[in-house]
Amino acid sequence: MNTKPITNPNKTVGVILAGGRATRMDHQDKGLVNYNGQPLIYYAISALSPIVAQVIINANRNIERYQHFGLSVITDQTDSFNGPLAGVLATMAYTDADLLLVMPCDCPLIKTRHVQKLLAAQIENNADITVAFDGVQLHGVFFAVRRTLQQSLHDYLASGQRKVSTWQRQHRIIPVDFSNEPDILTNINTMNELSILEAQHQAALGHK
């Protein structure tokens, strides 16, 4: 049950998207899968917590396990797993904050300075949406968005559409350039990808 919290409307909330089916990960709950000894969602919480008023987890399974992190956990408004935008919409309905800083649960290389850069670009440009850009493509699930777009997002999902980039392009987007370190946007979709990233991390530590 999504209980309405008391929040400062002038503050930014962080949103961690952990509500997917993770079909390529044998339907494991991706945010709870360990990477280097910690659940993947731990890294997202660590990145967001220093710069937002509140961190909210969007999850549709294992709610009690996510609640153990001591944060608000909200579910989609439907039970049909309608993709990341459904989690964003549920958060918009839950919070009174003006701005949402959104990231997925499966990008353990993103640090606080990266989400700070995304947030700073939104404030500086007074943009509807700022989206991470790796020099080649936009990474649509790592973005900052105004809650005033709630009705637009509701209508988009109600029309049966789901694609993140299609909805974002309906608004004024500012790309935020991470082309100098594109690897931080690496997301983990399979257990093999997780093993490779862990091995790379351990190799990097060995060379220090």
Automatic annotation (TrEMBL):
Its main location: cytoplasm. Its EC number is 2.7.7.77. It catalyses: Mo-molybdopterin + GTP + H(+) = Mo-molybdopterin guanine dinucleotide + diphosphate. Mg(2+) binds at residue 106. GO terms for cellular component: cytoplasm. CDD domains: MobA. GO terms for molecular function: GTP binding; metal ion binding; molybdenum cofactor guanylyltransferase activity. GTP binds at residues 17-19, 30, 58, 76, 106. Its cofactor is Mg(2+). Signal peptide: none annotated. InterPro entries: MobA-like_NTP_Trfase, Molybde_CF_guanTrfase, Nucleotide-diphossugar_trans. It is found in: Cytoplasm. Residues 14-166 form the MobA-like NTP transferase domain. Keywords: Cytoplasm, GTP-binding, Magnesium, Metal-binding, Molybdenum cofactor biosynthesis, Nucleotide-binding, Nucleotidyltransferase, Transferase. Belongs to the MobA family. HAMAP family: MobA. NCBIfam families: molyb_mobA. Transfers a GMP moiety from GTP to Mo-molybdopterin (Mo-MPT) cofactor (Moco or molybdenum cofactor) to form Mo-molybdopterin guanine dinucleotide (Mo-MGD) cofactor. The N-terminal domain determines nucleotide recognition and specific binding, while the C-terminal domain determines the specific binding to the target protein. Monomer. This is Molybdenum cofactor guanylyltransferase. It comes from Crenothrix polyspora.
